[in-house]
Predict the structure.
Amino acid sequence: MPALAQDFDLAMKKLVEECPADLVQLVRWGFPVSLVRREEKEAVFARRDSDNVFRVIEDGLEYLIPLDVQTEPDSHIPERFLEYTAMQHREFKLPVYPVVINLTGHQRQDTYILGCLDQPAAIVFRYRIINLVVTPGGDILEQGPVGLVPLVPLMMHDRPLEPVFDECLRRVREAPEEKLPTLELILAMLASRRLPKGIIREKMRGSKMEASPLFDGIREKWIEDGETRGKIEGKKEVAKNLLSLGVAVDVIVKASGLTEAEVEDLKKQLEH
């Protein structure tokens, strides 16, 4: 998996852990969902690291939402999702509403048909695709729960993205204190796909991103990736990534192992 996709995958997994009801609201926007419970990994019959399963009650109906986040094109999603959905239905004895949240804009197929001989459609499997790049972001930014706001920069807008990001940052900073660092970090990471890193770096000054548990996981992954290219280059790559997110120089010095002068030099390079 490319490094960028790995970053988004880590970010989305953390969002699922901290804001499960908010993600279900994205899936069932406008419907009366009264209960959302994330099933623990041990309770899921077929376990994979990328799987997220929510038990939902909506207007008296109890059902499951298996949620897959697609961070890169995957031609095998239909077959894999079919198998996994069937296993969940057998395990929990509940209706299943499978959903893919797509960050790539490439996935279009939402039906899988398998036939043979005189049974041209022996299996017809449908699942929901939410393509964020064609999802209008205005309503979610204005009315959606705060856990969805970090996804808004990836959505479709009828105005420039920089003021949209400003509004996203304002809303994220209204989040409960325990969720704020992680939501700030995810917002910065996802917005970096659409906005210049210099703009994000400037606007994220004074953020609390480094207090997020996700921060250490991403930093360690960047270090591991960098070490495959050489120890010094790896440290510099970590520093550049953190600078692009607006992390303070003193924090980057501790995280990367570089000197303050080396970090300041990298900062000047990124600014020119």
